[in-house]
Design a protein that fits this description.
Layout (H helix, E strand, L loop, with lengths): L1 H42 L7 H6 L7 E4 L2 H4 L4 H8 L3 E3 L7 H14 L4 E5 L4 H4 L9 H11 L6 H10 L5 H5 L12 H15 L34 H16 L3 E6 L4 H4 L4 H15 L2 E4 L23 H15 L12 H7 L4 E8 L12 E8 L7 E9 L4 E5 L5 E5 L11 E9 L2 E9 L1
Parallel strand pairs: 1-2, 1-3, 3-4, 4-5
Antiparallel strand pairs: 6-7, 7-10, 8-9, 8-11, 11-12
Length: 450
């Protein structure tokens, strides 16, 4: 009898001990949440791209949403489209938005609104930003997702998104933002700066512009090298899996899904083998019976964006967005003929005015990707001119001591420049000036550090 009583007492003590542990854990989590909310304004770096997502929950009644990267939120003006198309739209674009983020925000929008149409922006580089498995994401990519996680109300879907978007190394930081910046906890100058900027940022109401944030400034055409070369196999892995989830979700909810791509600078598209991407997306849309509007394939007869329309190589500025919105709305209203979109970018290149759209100037690497010991650069015009003999280069190097050397004035498609050596056998330091001529007329000039 005493043995049974002892067993019962031990069980009661064990339960009490377990309850205490659970209670302590719950209190710890609650305390951490309180501390997290108190210190988040001071510890977390200001980042205002997620605040339009926060403000999306202030009102409802939207029937159209736009999802995608900064190419979406910087080019699509919902208020303009409301007036032209008779819709009620909100732009849920965020910087470098991944496909799993798009899927999460789509579900959030449907919870609170009767969504009829979804426009998903298809910036080609988004397919190259993530590894095939999202579980292999590194901290730089994960930090892009935190801007959304931090402002969306708590829900089961949010928890699923958090844990599926990252691996276990980042779970704790995803749940508790202050843990990300704990190294700055005693940097009082940084804390004060963050607090002032965050208070200023969070007081703004982004719902007034429905998530639209224009990029202000004009592109400066500088030397570039594009590593993001398109292929027909680039749509794959978890990116493709979440795109398929978006397609399936929209079908089940009787929502029209439209894929689109905003205009980008011609010099970029000439370099990245863009038609490979067009082929991949076109095939995907054919299999899934989806509409795809690639505004990089609009005939120059109906839309022409010059340098003044761009913030940088991939994003429109305020001038470009206004032009784009006119064309975008007119197309959806049926104001353009059947030849509005061309089939390939190669077709468009032939219709564009002949010219030089940029310059490729970069250090050459060997077959392993390592820079060669000799400082050697590729110099090449980015152009739609087919007869490369019409293009000529003039390259002048000015050493720090003021001595000038005209290295080359070739009449060929490009040039490999080996930087001259100084008296000690080291590559000289100085500046380089590159002029590009088309039919003996200077059409492009660049000056910079050697």
């Amino acid at each position: 009898m005493q043995g049974k009583m002892k067993t019962i007492e031990n069980a009661i003590c064990y339960k009490k001990h377990s309850y205490k542990k659970i209670t302590k854990f719950i209190l710890f989590v609650c305390l951490l949440l309180i501390v997290n909310n108190i210190f988040k304004l001071a510890l977390v770096d200001p980042c205002n791209y997620q605040l339009p997502i926060r403000d999306f929950y202030k009102t409802d009644g939207y029937d159209t949403i736009f999802l995608g990267t900064c190419h979406s939120y910087g080019s699509i003006d919902p208020l303009f489209l409301d007036d032209r198309l008779g819709i009620s739209a909100y732009n849920l674009g965020t910087a470098d938005q991944s496909l799993d983020t798009s899927f999460f925000l789509l579900k959030e929008a449907v919870k609170h609104n009767d969504i009829k149409t979804v426009y998903l922006e298809m910036y080609y580089s988004i397919w190259l930003m993530d590894p095939e498995s999202y579980k292999d994401r590194q901290i730089g990519r994960v930090s892009d997702l935190w801007g959304v996680m931090d402002v969306v109300p708590f829900s089961v879907d949010k928890m699923r998104y958090m844990f599926s978007a990252t691996n276990k190394d980042y779970y704790f930081m995803s749940l508790f933002p202050v843990c990300r910046e704990r190294r700055d906890i005693f940097n009082f100058d940084q804390l004060q700066k963050n607090m002032e900027q965050n208070v200023k940022i969070i007081s703004q109401d982004y719902s007034q512009k429905r998530g639209f944030r224009v990029h202000k400034g004009e592109m400066n055409i500088s030397p570039v090298i594009y590593s993001d070369v398109c292929t027909t196999e680039m749509i794959k892995g978890d990116n493709l899996r979440y795109l398929e989830k978006i397609i399936s979700f929209c079908r089940n909810k009787d929502i029209e899904l439209i894929l689109y791509t905003a205009p980008m600078w011609e010099g970029l598209l000439m370099e990245v083998d863009y038609d490979k991407y067009v082929e991949a997306v076109t095939e995907l849309c054919r299999k899934n019976d989806l509409a795809y509007y690639d505004f990089n394939l609009v005939s120059p007869e109906y839309m022409r964006m010059d340098q003044s329309s761009y913030f940088d190589y991939t994003r429109l500025n305020e001038v470009g967005s206004e032009k784009f919105m006119e064309v975008f709305s007119d197309y959806l209203n049926g104001k353009y003929p059947d030849d509005f979109f061309l089939s390939t970018y190669q077709e468009k290149m032939k219709l564009l005015e002949e010219g030089v759209y940029g310059i490729c100037y970069h250090r050459i690497t060997d077959e392993t990707g390592e820079e060669k010991g000799v400082r050697e650069y590729e110099i090449r015009a980015i152009t739609n001119v087919l007869e490369k003999e019409r293009i000529r280069y003039s390259i002048q190097i000015t050493e720090d001591n003021g001595e000038q050397k005209t290295v080359l004035a070739p009449a060929e498609s490009g040039y490999s420049l080996v930087v001259p050596l100084d008296e000690e056998g080291e590559p000289i330091a100085g500046t380089i000036s590159i002029q590009i001529y088309l039919d003996d007329k200077e059409v492009f000039c660049y000056e910079g550090e050697l």
